[in-house]
Amino acid sequence: MAGHGYSDPRQFVDDLSRGATDGLLYLASLSFVDPSQIATHGHSMGGWSTLRAAVDHPELVKTVILQGSSTETYLSGEVTAETPFNFAVNFSRYDEFWDLMWNDKDAQGRPIATDASGASLVNKPSDIVKAPKLKKIFGVTEAVVPFTMYGDPANETARMLYMSDTTHPGDHLSKQAIGYSIDFLSRTIPAPNPLPVSNQIWPYKELGTLLVLAGMFIFLFAIGAWLLETSCFAALKRPVPDHPGTKGLTWWIGAIIATGIPAATLFTFKAWGERWVPPSRLFPQAITSQIMVWAVLNGLIALVLFLIWHFTLGRKQGGSALAYGLSTESGHFTLSWRYLGRTFLLAVSVVAIAQVMAHFVEWAFLVDARFWVVALKPLSAARFGMYLAYVIPFFVFFLASSLVMHGQLRLAGKGLALEMAANALVGALGITVLVALQVGHLLITETLMFPNEALWGIIAYQFIPLTALAGALSTFFFRKTGNIYAGAMVNALFVTWYIVAGQAIHFVG
After folding, report:
1. 348 near 457, Cβ under 8 Å?
2. What 3-state DSSP class applies to 26?
3. Which of 116, 160, 270, 333 yields a CA-CA distance of 20 to 30 A from 298?
4. Nearest-angstrom CA–CA distance, 301 and 298
């Protein structure tokens, strides 16, 4: 999609189909494609885009399938029972975006579909059967009946509503949801040699790219360990400074605060970021900028709380800049710029080698390292300038979090594996609980605990593995170098790469 993935950075206003029309026209132009047998399939905003292309060129499209998507937006155009192509909506019973997709509202934000008392008829995903615009598509006045064929595929008037038992992003991992789309396609454009709908092999690809993703994460530790044994970086290896660490109830209280605050502030701080840092030439990715503001504010909170802890408890226990890993040399607070420069070169080398590996995997196998919504894409040249702008704020966050992790919450006397696991848990637990509350409420009630955060409740999924990885990486490099800088630099360079390479570009200068 235009502005996403590896496509050119184009603003949405340039093309209401965000590149889908170009794709459709190209497909129809190919000599081996029968232009009378073309189907489009799109999920979420991809459904809006492919539908826009189909509405603009109905003569090129026989079948349209929307998955977790809707119609009649300003982007996708109107579809009625007379629109000349077969049409299916595959919408999940726990789709987070039911309100946005199907609950049409007036200028004052009031639902249009209401009962005699004025109460909304569309209050959860399964209620979309009562949505006026869905009824218009099916040409009925009563509620649409799921899994019932309306119209006739032979004259391209077929209409079908499927409802799978998953969430909006769950469509990507559900054989049931994918199976429903295959079913409608097979009904409207029968294959010459049909296969059973159950014969789906795409999960093996998901497993394969999951292994690549896990391998890339593990590769970071292997690269770091190998480089620290070379003559160029061996001098960076230092013993871990003496520190009594935090034990018992004090550690648990500190860990709960450290993991809870980022989760508790996510929705509020990202909203501030949306207002404070709109897409610009310097920060052109809206979502990345919101994550950046959340990260920087949490870094400042962590620093303030750490200083309060240090002056009330920490220094009484022998805490100092050297003990916390802030100093690179002996002394009260001494930094060797030569040492820091070489540490930065180490971090750049670790992430650069990983970047080369990501590009190699993409070139050799035509895949990237991904599983579900977690995708590590190679960083393109077009995004490198953005990367440089975002990496410094993220470094501030990781430096502050490393200070808390290894200054206040250090598990003195514990093994490396145990401390890496503990810090991975501290990093990820709060966000995991936030996601569990949102998804759990959805699965139980078909509504969201945080109803205005459908998108960010899904974006937060990615924070779970990223924050766990960051905690483990920070601990690994702290144990190797005796200070917090290597881990903070590696985390900033790697996580910024992950985010910038995967987010849409919303501003083009």
Report:
1. no
2. helix
3. 333
4. 5
Query: pLDDT (tens digit, 9 = 90+) per residue, 113-128?
Result: 788 787 888 899 999 9
Paired tokens of 479: 């144990």
Bridge partners, residue 114, by sequence? 120
Four-point Cα dihedral 276, 279, 282, 288, nearest 10: 80
Which pairs with CB-CB distance under 8 Å and at least 24 residues apart come from 223-228? 223/349, 223/350, 223/353, 223/354, 224/346, 224/350, 224/476, 224/477, 224/480, 224/486, 224/490, 225/480, 227/346, 227/349, 227/350, 228/346, 228/480, 228/481
Alpha carbons 149 and 20: distance in angstroms, whole number: 27
- The model's confidence at residue 11, banded by pLDDT at 50, 70 and 90, is low
Contact 191, 34 (CB under 8 A): no
Residue percentage of the chain with pLDDT more than 90: 75
Sign of the CA dihedral with 377 first, then 227, 292, and 169 last: positive
User: Which residue in this structure is represented by tokens 């990367």?
Assistant: 387
End-to-end, the C-alpha distance of the chain in Å comes to 19
CB 39 within 8 Å of CB 188: yes
CA angle 393, 398, 404 (to 5 degrees): 135
